[in-house]
């Protein structure tokens, strides 16, 4: 567990536990409705409290999986998950996903939770952390680059957004 204070707002980042499942289901649903930068529109690929509980318990058993939450006053305001493969040829690599409730943007929660994941990847002796981001999510792209991620590829016209246009998805990675 790590404590942070940004703009006079205190928060912690810690590993997820099964009792977080109910809040995580609500937070994920809310985030999906706050931005188009996620893979889903609100209500798609819904994860229930039970789904999150199973996911957290499973992640706790796998050495190349990590599930972190950011919490303010015992309320989850963001989360990060790293998922690795169980295949020998790919188990050195994890894919990262991160999300923060819009009301808490600007508190560097994303930066701190990703840094914690990078520290974990180093101690776990992983080789690569990757992620996907829509090209027009400029703030996120700049953050990832600041944290050492580099572009490895681009999925052309990968996301259809509400403006009716197709956007590329950037494939970014950080080597440990």
Automatic annotation (TrEMBL):
Record bears the keyword Transferase: yes
Membrane-spanning segments: none
The keyword Zinc is assigned to this record: no
One Pfam short name: Acetyltransf_1
Identification of the protein by name: Protein N-acetyltransferase, RimJ/RimL family
Domain N-acetyltransferase span(s) in chain numbering: 11-176
Gene source species: Amphibacillus marinus
GO function term, MF aspect, one: acyltransferase activity, transferring groups other than amino-acyl groups
Signal peptide: none
Organism lineage string: Bacteria, Bacillati, Bacillota, Bacilli, Bacillales
Keywords: Transferase
């Amino acid at each position: 567990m790590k404590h942070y204070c940004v703009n006079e707002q205190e928060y912690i980042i810690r590993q997820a536990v099964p009792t977080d499942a109910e809040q995580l289901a609500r937070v994920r649903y809310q985030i999906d409705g706050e931005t188009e930068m996620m893979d889903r529109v609100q209500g798609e690929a819904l994860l229930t409290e039970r789904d999150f509980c199973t996911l957290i318990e499973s992640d706790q058993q796998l050495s190349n999986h990590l599930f972190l939450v950011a919490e303010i006053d015992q309320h989850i305001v963001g989360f990060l998950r790293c998922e690795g493969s169980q295949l020998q040829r790919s188990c050195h690599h994890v894919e990262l996903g991160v999300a923060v409730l819009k009301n808490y943007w600007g508190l560097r929660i994303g930066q701190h939770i990703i840094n914690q994941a990078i520290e974990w990847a180093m101690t776990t002796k992983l080789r690569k952390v990757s992620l996907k981001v829509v090209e027009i999510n400029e703030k996120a792209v700049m953050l990832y680059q600041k944290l050492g991620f580099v572009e490895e590829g681009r999925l052309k016209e990968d996301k259809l957004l509400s403006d009716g246009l197709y956007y590329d998805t950037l494939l970014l990675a950080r080597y440990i």
